[in-house]
Protein backbone atom coordinates (compact mmCIF):
# COMPACT_ATOMS: atom_id res chain seq x y z
CA UNK A 1 0.00 0.00 0.00
CA UNK A 2 1.33 3.42 -0.97
CA UNK A 3 -0.11 6.82 -0.01
CA UNK A 4 0.45 10.06 -1.90
CA UNK A 5 -0.92 12.86 0.19
CA UNK A 6 -0.69 16.54 0.91
CA UNK A 7 -1.86 15.90 4.42
CA UNK A 8 -0.31 13.13 6.43
CA UNK A 9 -2.79 11.82 8.93
CA UNK A 10 -1.47 8.69 10.62
CA UNK A 11 -5.06 7.54 11.12
CA UNK A 12 -5.08 6.87 7.37
CA UNK A 13 -2.70 3.95 7.94
CA UNK A 14 -5.08 2.21 10.31
CA UNK A 15 -7.91 1.87 7.82
CA UNK A 16 -8.73 -1.60 6.43
CA UNK A 17 -6.92 -1.12 3.11
CA UNK A 18 -6.81 -4.83 2.32
CA UNK A 19 -10.62 -4.94 2.17
CA UNK A 20 -12.61 -3.73 -0.85
CA UNK A 21 -14.26 -0.37 0.00
CA UNK A 22 -17.70 -1.91 -0.44
CA UNK A 23 -17.06 -4.26 2.49
CA UNK A 24 -15.62 -1.78 4.98
CA UNK A 25 -17.11 -2.12 8.45
CA UNK A 26 -19.69 0.48 9.45
CA UNK A 27 -17.53 1.82 12.29
CA UNK A 28 -15.43 3.74 9.75
CA UNK A 29 -18.31 5.05 7.68
CA UNK A 30 -20.66 7.99 7.84
CA UNK A 31 -23.99 7.81 6.06
CA UNK A 32 -24.48 10.99 4.06
CA UNK A 33 -26.50 11.64 0.92
CA UNK A 34 -24.57 10.88 -2.23
CA UNK A 35 -25.16 11.16 -5.95
CA UNK A 36 -25.32 8.43 -8.54
CA UNK A 37 -21.91 7.09 -9.59
CA UNK A 38 -20.27 4.19 -11.38
CA UNK A 39 -17.50 3.84 -8.83
CA UNK A 40 -17.91 2.84 -5.21
CA UNK A 41 -17.90 5.98 -3.07
CA UNK A 42 -17.99 5.91 0.76
CA UNK A 43 -17.77 8.64 3.37
CA UNK A 44 -15.16 7.97 6.02
CA UNK A 45 -14.58 9.74 9.31
CA UNK A 46 -10.98 10.56 10.26
CA UNK A 47 -10.52 12.64 13.38
CA UNK A 48 -12.84 15.62 13.15
CA UNK A 49 -13.30 15.53 9.38
CA UNK A 50 -15.31 13.49 6.94
CA UNK A 51 -13.76 12.42 3.63
CA UNK A 52 -15.13 10.90 0.45
CA UNK A 53 -13.28 7.74 -0.67
CA UNK A 54 -13.65 6.68 -4.30
CA UNK A 55 -12.33 3.35 -5.57
CA UNK A 56 -10.99 3.58 -9.10
CA UNK A 57 -8.05 2.67 -11.34
CA UNK A 58 -4.71 4.06 -10.23
CA UNK A 59 -4.10 6.14 -13.33
CA UNK A 60 -7.55 7.72 -13.09
CA UNK A 61 -7.22 8.44 -9.38
CA UNK A 62 -3.86 10.13 -9.92
CA UNK A 63 -5.07 12.19 -12.82
CA UNK A 64 -8.13 13.35 -10.93
CA UNK A 65 -5.99 14.11 -7.87
CA UNK A 66 -3.63 16.32 -9.91
CA UNK A 67 -6.49 18.10 -11.64
CA UNK A 68 -8.36 18.80 -8.40
CA UNK A 69 -5.14 20.18 -6.88
CA UNK A 70 -4.67 22.43 -9.90
CA UNK A 71 -8.26 23.66 -9.60
CA UNK A 72 -7.72 24.38 -5.93
CA UNK A 73 -4.68 26.50 -6.76
CA UNK A 74 -6.80 28.75 -8.95
CA UNK A 75 -9.49 28.92 -6.26
CA UNK A 76 -12.03 27.10 -8.33
CA UNK A 77 -15.21 25.80 -6.63
CA UNK A 78 -14.52 22.06 -6.56
CA UNK A 79 -14.00 19.39 -3.93
CA UNK A 80 -10.46 19.24 -2.45
CA UNK A 81 -8.24 16.28 -3.20
CA UNK A 82 -6.44 14.94 -0.14
CA UNK A 83 -4.71 11.70 -1.11
CA UNK A 84 -4.37 8.75 -3.44
CA UNK A 85 -3.88 5.30 -1.95
CA UNK A 86 -2.39 2.85 -4.47
CA UNK A 87 -0.84 -0.64 -4.55
CA UNK A 88 -3.51 -2.16 -2.35
CA UNK A 89 -3.95 -5.88 -2.04
CA UNK A 90 -6.11 -8.31 -0.12
CA UNK A 91 -4.75 -10.60 2.63
CA UNK A 92 -4.37 -13.25 -0.10
CA UNK A 93 -2.33 -10.94 -2.29
CA UNK A 94 -5.08 -10.15 -4.81
CA UNK A 95 -4.67 -6.61 -6.19
CA UNK A 96 -7.29 -4.02 -5.22
CA UNK A 97 -8.15 -0.74 -6.95
CA UNK A 98 -6.70 2.58 -5.82
CA UNK A 99 -8.64 5.06 -3.72
CA UNK A 100 -8.96 8.79 -4.34
CA UNK A 101 -9.67 10.70 -1.13
CA UNK A 102 -11.34 14.11 -1.19
CA UNK A 103 -12.53 16.21 1.69
CA UNK A 104 -16.29 16.03 2.13
CA UNK A 105 -17.77 19.38 1.12
CA UNK A 106 -19.65 20.56 4.21
CA UNK A 107 -23.30 21.52 3.89
CA UNK A 108 -23.32 20.38 0.29
CA UNK A 109 -26.02 18.23 -1.19
CA UNK A 110 -26.35 16.18 -4.35
CA UNK A 111 -29.27 17.49 -6.39
CA UNK A 112 -31.49 14.53 -5.56
CA UNK A 113 -31.31 15.39 -1.89
CA UNK A 114 -32.48 18.95 -2.51
CA UNK A 115 -36.09 17.99 -2.92
CA UNK A 116 -38.17 15.42 -1.09
CA UNK A 117 -41.06 14.56 -3.40
CA UNK A 118 -41.02 16.33 -6.73
CA UNK A 119 -38.47 18.63 -8.23
CA UNK A 120 -40.37 21.87 -8.66
CA UNK A 121 -39.82 24.38 -11.48
CA UNK A 122 -38.33 27.07 -9.18
CA UNK A 123 -35.84 24.64 -7.69
CA UNK A 124 -34.89 23.32 -11.11
CA UNK A 125 -34.46 26.86 -12.38
CA UNK A 126 -32.09 27.71 -9.52
CA UNK A 127 -30.09 24.54 -10.06
CA UNK A 128 -29.69 25.37 -13.74
CA UNK A 129 -28.61 28.93 -12.92
CA UNK A 130 -25.94 27.65 -10.54
CA UNK A 131 -24.76 25.06 -13.04
CA UNK A 132 -24.62 27.54 -15.94
CA UNK A 133 -22.59 29.95 -13.80
CA UNK A 134 -20.22 27.15 -12.81
CA UNK A 135 -19.59 26.21 -16.45
CA UNK A 136 -18.99 29.85 -17.40
CA UNK A 137 -16.44 30.20 -14.58
CA UNK A 138 -14.87 26.97 -15.67
CA UNK A 139 -14.53 28.02 -19.28
CA UNK A 140 -13.13 31.42 -18.33
CA UNK A 141 -10.28 29.66 -16.56
CA UNK A 142 -9.66 27.29 -19.49
CA UNK A 143 -11.09 24.20 -17.82
CA UNK A 144 -12.83 21.68 -20.08
CA UNK A 145 -15.09 19.49 -17.96
CA UNK A 146 -16.08 16.78 -20.38
CA UNK A 147 -18.79 15.34 -18.13
CA UNK A 148 -20.97 18.12 -16.83
CA UNK A 149 -24.12 16.78 -15.22
CA UNK A 150 -26.29 17.36 -12.17
CA UNK A 151 -24.80 14.21 -10.59
CA UNK A 152 -21.26 15.47 -11.00
CA UNK A 153 -22.09 18.70 -9.22
CA UNK A 154 -22.66 19.42 -5.56
CA UNK A 155 -24.92 22.25 -4.44
CA UNK A 156 -24.72 24.47 -1.40
CA UNK A 157 -27.50 26.81 -0.37
CA UNK A 158 -26.74 30.40 -1.21
CA UNK A 159 -29.31 32.86 0.14
CA UNK A 160 -32.29 31.61 -1.81
CA UNK A 161 -30.19 30.39 -4.73
CA UNK A 162 -27.58 27.64 -5.04
CA UNK A 163 -23.83 27.66 -5.48
CA UNK A 164 -22.48 24.78 -7.58
CA UNK A 165 -19.24 22.86 -6.99
CA UNK A 166 -17.54 20.40 -9.28
CA UNK A 167 -17.23 16.97 -7.68
CA UNK A 168 -16.08 14.69 -10.50
CA UNK A 169 -13.06 15.91 -12.50
CA UNK A 170 -12.17 12.55 -14.00
CA UNK A 171 -12.74 13.66 -17.59
CA UNK A 172 -11.50 17.24 -17.22
CA UNK A 173 -8.47 19.03 -18.66
CA UNK A 174 -6.99 22.40 -17.80
CA UNK A 175 -5.85 24.49 -20.80
CA UNK A 176 -4.62 28.05 -21.15
CA UNK A 177 -7.90 28.96 -22.76
CA UNK A 178 -10.71 27.23 -24.61
CA UNK A 179 -11.72 27.63 -28.24
CA UNK A 180 -15.35 28.21 -29.16
CA UNK A 181 -15.37 24.65 -30.46
CA UNK A 182 -14.25 23.24 -27.12
CA UNK A 183 -16.81 25.30 -25.24
CA UNK A 184 -19.51 24.13 -27.62
CA UNK A 185 -18.50 20.51 -27.16
CA UNK A 186 -18.57 20.79 -23.38
CA UNK A 187 -22.02 22.39 -23.53
CA UNK A 188 -23.32 19.67 -25.81
CA UNK A 189 -22.17 17.05 -23.27
CA UNK A 190 -23.93 19.02 -20.52
CA UNK A 191 -27.10 19.20 -22.62
CA UNK A 192 -27.20 15.45 -23.26
CA UNK A 193 -26.41 14.52 -19.62
CA UNK A 194 -28.99 16.87 -18.16
CA UNK A 195 -31.62 15.66 -20.63
CA UNK A 196 -30.93 12.10 -19.45
CA UNK A 197 -31.09 13.06 -15.80
CA UNK A 198 -34.38 14.92 -16.28
CA UNK A 199 -35.82 11.90 -18.12
CA UNK A 200 -34.76 9.65 -15.23
CA UNK A 201 -36.46 11.91 -12.73
CA UNK A 202 -39.56 11.98 -14.92
CA UNK A 203 -39.66 8.20 -15.20
CA UNK A 204 -39.41 7.92 -11.43
CA UNK A 205 -42.29 10.38 -11.02
CA UNK A 206 -39.99 12.88 -9.30
CA UNK A 207 -40.22 15.68 -11.83
CA UNK A 208 -42.96 18.29 -11.53
CA UNK A 209 -45.41 17.78 -14.41
CA UNK A 210 -44.85 21.26 -15.81
CA UNK A 211 -41.14 20.56 -16.41
CA UNK A 212 -40.22 19.31 -19.86
CA UNK A 213 -36.81 17.55 -19.99
CA UNK A 214 -36.24 18.82 -23.51
CA UNK A 215 -36.75 22.44 -22.42
CA UNK A 216 -34.68 22.04 -19.26
CA UNK A 217 -31.53 20.93 -21.05
CA UNK A 218 -31.90 23.67 -23.69
CA UNK A 219 -32.27 26.17 -20.91
CA UNK A 220 -28.95 25.46 -19.27
CA UNK A 221 -27.28 26.15 -22.62
CA UNK A 222 -29.21 29.40 -23.10
CA UNK A 223 -28.40 30.62 -19.60
CA UNK A 224 -24.76 29.83 -20.20
CA UNK A 225 -24.76 31.69 -23.54
CA UNK A 226 -26.41 34.78 -22.03
CA UNK A 227 -23.91 34.97 -19.20
CA UNK A 228 -20.95 34.26 -21.45
CA UNK A 229 -22.02 37.01 -23.83
CA UNK A 230 -22.49 39.55 -21.05
CA UNK A 231 -18.99 38.83 -19.79
CA UNK A 232 -17.09 38.69 -23.03
CA UNK A 233 -18.78 40.84 -25.68
CA UNK A 234 -16.81 43.62 -27.32
CA UNK A 235 -18.47 46.99 -27.11
CA UNK A 236 -17.88 49.95 -29.42
CA UNK A 237 -18.06 53.25 -27.53
CA UNK A 238 -17.49 56.96 -28.17
CA UNK A 239 -14.34 58.51 -26.80
CA UNK A 240 -16.24 60.55 -24.19
CA UNK A 241 -18.58 57.77 -23.08
CA UNK A 242 -16.48 56.61 -20.17
CA UNK A 243 -19.55 55.95 -18.07
CA UNK A 244 -20.55 53.21 -20.51
CA UNK A 245 -17.49 51.25 -19.45
CA UNK A 246 -18.13 51.97 -15.80
CA UNK A 247 -21.71 50.80 -16.19
CA UNK A 248 -20.53 47.59 -17.79
CA UNK A 249 -18.04 46.93 -14.99
CA UNK A 250 -20.72 47.58 -12.37
CA UNK A 251 -23.07 45.13 -14.13
CA UNK A 252 -20.34 42.50 -14.18
CA UNK A 253 -19.66 43.08 -10.46
CA UNK A 254 -23.38 42.68 -9.82
CA UNK A 255 -23.22 39.31 -11.57
CA UNK A 256 -20.35 38.48 -9.22
CA UNK A 257 -17.42 38.87 -11.64
CA UNK A 258 -14.30 40.87 -10.95
CA UNK A 259 -12.74 42.88 -13.76
CA UNK A 260 -8.95 43.16 -13.74
CA UNK A 261 -8.41 45.41 -16.73
CA UNK A 262 -10.19 46.80 -19.73
CA UNK A 263 -8.64 46.32 -23.16
CA UNK A 264 -9.34 49.19 -25.56
CA UNK A 265 -8.45 49.56 -29.20
CA UNK A 266 -9.43 52.43 -31.48
CA UNK A 267 -11.47 51.77 -34.60
CA UNK A 268 -11.65 53.86 -37.77
CA UNK A 269 -14.67 56.01 -36.98
CA UNK A 270 -13.06 57.52 -33.86
CA UNK A 271 -14.75 55.10 -31.53
CA UNK A 272 -13.14 52.54 -29.24
CA UNK A 273 -13.61 48.83 -29.02
CA UNK A 274 -13.76 47.80 -25.39
CA UNK A 275 -13.39 44.37 -23.86
CA UNK A 276 -13.21 43.82 -20.11
CA UNK A 277 -10.87 41.15 -18.83
CA UNK A 278 -12.86 39.24 -16.27
CA UNK A 279 -10.53 37.60 -13.80
CA UNK A 280 -12.81 35.68 -11.56
CA UNK A 281 -16.21 35.23 -10.06
CA UNK A 282 -16.68 35.86 -6.37
CA UNK A 283 -16.64 39.67 -6.29
CA UNK A 284 -18.89 39.89 -3.21
CA UNK A 285 -17.32 36.85 -1.58
CA UNK A 286 -13.92 38.51 -1.75
CA UNK A 287 -15.14 41.89 -0.51
CA UNK A 288 -16.83 40.26 2.49
CA UNK A 289 -13.77 38.15 3.23
CA UNK A 290 -11.50 41.19 3.05
CA UNK A 291 -13.73 43.24 5.38
CA UNK A 292 -14.89 40.67 7.92
CA UNK A 293 -12.92 37.46 7.46
CA UNK A 294 -16.20 35.64 6.78
CA UNK A 295 -16.15 33.16 3.94
CA UNK A 296 -19.55 33.04 2.25
CA UNK A 297 -21.07 32.10 -1.07
CA UNK A 298 -21.65 34.90 -3.56
CA UNK A 299 -25.34 35.62 -2.86
CA UNK A 300 -24.95 35.21 0.88
CA UNK A 301 -22.05 37.65 0.73
CA UNK A 302 -24.17 40.13 -1.25
CA UNK A 303 -26.93 39.99 1.41
CA UNK A 304 -24.46 40.28 4.30
CA UNK A 305 -22.72 43.22 2.61
CA UNK A 306 -26.05 44.99 2.11
CA UNK A 307 -26.70 44.64 5.80
CA UNK A 308 -23.19 45.82 6.62
CA UNK A 309 -23.48 48.82 4.30
CA UNK A 310 -26.85 49.77 5.82
CA UNK A 311 -25.34 49.43 9.30
CA UNK A 312 -22.46 51.65 8.31
CA UNK A 313 -24.79 54.32 6.92
CA UNK A 314 -27.04 54.22 10.01
CA UNK A 315 -24.17 54.42 12.46
CA UNK A 316 -22.47 57.20 10.52
CA UNK A 317 -19.14 55.42 10.34
CA UNK A 318 -16.97 56.57 7.47
CA UNK A 319 -14.22 54.03 7.88
CA UNK A 320 -15.23 50.83 6.10
CA UNK A 321 -12.90 48.57 8.10
CA UNK A 322 -14.05 49.93 11.42
CA UNK A 323 -17.72 49.63 10.44
CA UNK A 324 -17.14 46.05 9.31
CA UNK A 325 -15.54 45.13 12.60
CA UNK A 326 -18.38 46.64 14.63
CA UNK A 327 -21.01 45.04 12.44
CA UNK A 328 -19.35 41.66 12.92
CA UNK A 329 -19.25 41.88 16.70
CA UNK A 330 -22.48 43.79 17.29
CA UNK A 331 -24.78 42.37 14.63
CA UNK A 332 -23.54 39.17 13.01
CA UNK A 333 -22.08 37.31 15.97
CA UNK A 334 -24.95 37.97 18.41
CA UNK A 335 -27.43 36.67 15.83
CA UNK A 336 -25.46 33.48 15.26
CA UNK A 337 -24.96 33.00 19.00
CA UNK A 338 -28.70 33.31 19.55
CA UNK A 339 -29.16 30.00 17.73
CA UNK A 340 -29.19 27.15 20.26
CA UNK A 341 -26.38 24.63 19.74
CA UNK A 342 -28.69 21.79 18.70
CA UNK A 343 -30.08 23.92 15.87
CA UNK A 344 -26.69 25.02 14.51
CA UNK A 345 -26.24 21.87 12.48
CA UNK A 346 -29.14 22.80 10.28
CA UNK A 347 -27.49 25.54 8.25
CA UNK A 348 -24.10 27.16 8.22
CA UNK A 349 -23.88 30.53 10.03
CA UNK A 350 -23.59 32.68 6.90
CA UNK A 351 -26.69 31.08 5.37
CA UNK A 352 -28.51 31.36 8.69
CA UNK A 353 -27.77 35.07 8.89
CA UNK A 354 -28.82 35.64 5.26
CA UNK A 355 -32.11 33.84 5.92
CA UNK A 356 -32.74 35.76 9.12
CA UNK A 357 -32.33 39.16 7.47
CA UNK A 358 -34.68 37.98 4.71
CA UNK A 359 -37.16 36.86 7.38
CA UNK A 360 -36.84 40.20 9.17
CA UNK A 361 -37.62 42.00 5.95
CA UNK A 362 -40.76 39.87 5.40
CA UNK A 363 -41.99 40.41 8.95
CA UNK A 364 -41.34 44.14 8.70
CA UNK A 365 -43.25 44.28 5.42
CA UNK A 366 -46.23 42.57 7.03
CA UNK A 367 -46.11 44.79 10.11
CA UNK A 368 -45.51 47.97 8.14
CA UNK A 369 -42.58 48.86 10.42
CA UNK A 370 -39.13 47.59 11.31
CA UNK A 371 -39.71 44.68 13.70
CA UNK A 372 -36.10 44.66 14.92
CA UNK A 373 -33.46 41.98 14.86
CA UNK A 374 -34.28 40.38 18.22
CA UNK A 375 -37.87 39.69 17.25
CA UNK A 376 -36.88 38.48 13.79
CA UNK A 377 -34.38 36.00 15.25
CA UNK A 378 -36.89 34.56 17.75
CA UNK A 379 -39.57 34.23 15.10
CA UNK A 380 -37.14 32.61 12.66
CA UNK A 381 -35.94 30.07 15.22
CA UNK A 382 -39.42 29.14 16.35
CA UNK A 383 -41.27 29.14 13.04
CA UNK A 384 -38.69 28.34 10.35
CA UNK A 385 -35.48 26.72 11.53
CA UNK A 386 -36.94 23.98 13.73
CA UNK A 387 -38.70 22.53 10.68
CA UNK A 388 -35.55 22.19 8.58
CA UNK A 389 -33.53 18.99 8.24
CA UNK A 390 -29.89 18.95 9.37
CA UNK A 391 -27.49 19.65 6.56
CA UNK A 392 -24.11 19.60 8.19
CA UNK A 393 -21.90 16.60 7.78
CA UNK A 394 -21.58 16.18 11.50
CA UNK A 395 -19.80 13.24 12.99
CA UNK A 396 -22.29 10.66 14.05
CA UNK A 397 -25.26 12.37 12.52
CA UNK A 398 -27.02 9.94 10.28
CA UNK A 399 -28.59 11.24 7.10
CA UNK A 400 -30.37 8.71 4.88
CA UNK A 401 -28.25 7.62 1.93
CA UNK A 402 -29.83 7.81 -1.49
CA UNK A 403 -28.05 4.79 -2.92
N1 LIG B 1 -15.74 15.39 -1.62
C1 LIG B 1 -17.03 15.05 -1.69
N2 LIG B 1 -17.94 15.70 -0.92
C2 LIG B 1 -19.26 15.36 -0.97
N3 LIG B 1 -19.75 14.41 -1.77
C3 LIG B 1 -18.90 13.73 -2.55
C4 LIG B 1 -17.51 14.01 -2.57
N4 LIG B 1 -16.91 13.18 -3.45
C5 LIG B 1 -17.90 12.39 -3.97
N5 LIG B 1 -19.08 12.72 -3.44
C6 LIG B 1 -20.39 12.09 -3.73
O1 LIG B 1 -20.18 10.89 -4.43
C7 LIG B 1 -20.84 10.91 -5.68
C8 LIG B 1 -20.03 10.18 -6.73
O2 LIG B 1 -18.75 10.77 -6.94
P1 LIG B 1 -18.12 10.85 -8.41
O3 LIG B 1 -19.06 11.57 -9.30
O4 LIG B 1 -16.76 11.38 -8.26
O5 LIG B 1 -18.10 9.29 -8.78
P2 LIG B 1 -17.92 8.61 -10.24
O6 LIG B 1 -18.12 7.15 -10.05
O7 LIG B 1 -16.62 9.06 -10.81
O8 LIG B 1 -19.07 9.21 -11.08
P3 LIG B 1 -19.37 8.90 -12.65
O9 LIG B 1 -20.33 7.77 -12.67
O10 LIG B 1 -19.97 10.21 -13.09
O11 LIG B 1 -18.02 8.63 -13.28
C9 LIG B 1 -21.03 12.39 -6.00
O12 LIG B 1 -22.17 12.60 -6.78
C10 LIG B 1 -21.22 12.99 -4.62
O13 LIG B 1 -22.56 12.93 -4.21
MG1 LIG C 1 -19.67 11.22 -11.19
TrEMBL record:
InterPro entries membership: DUF4032, Kinase-like_dom_sf
Gene Ontology molecular function, alphabetical: transferase activity
List keywords of the entry alphabetically. Transferase
Question: Record's superkingdom?
Answer: Bacteria
Q: Which residues form the DUF4032 domain?
A: 226-385
Q: What is this protein called?
A: tRNA A-37 threonylcarbamoyl transferase component Bud32
- What is the native source organism of this protein? Micromonospora jinlongensis
Instruction: Please spell out the taxonomic lineage of the organism that makes this protein.
Output: Bacteria, Bacillati, Actinomycetota, Actinomycetes, Micromonosporales
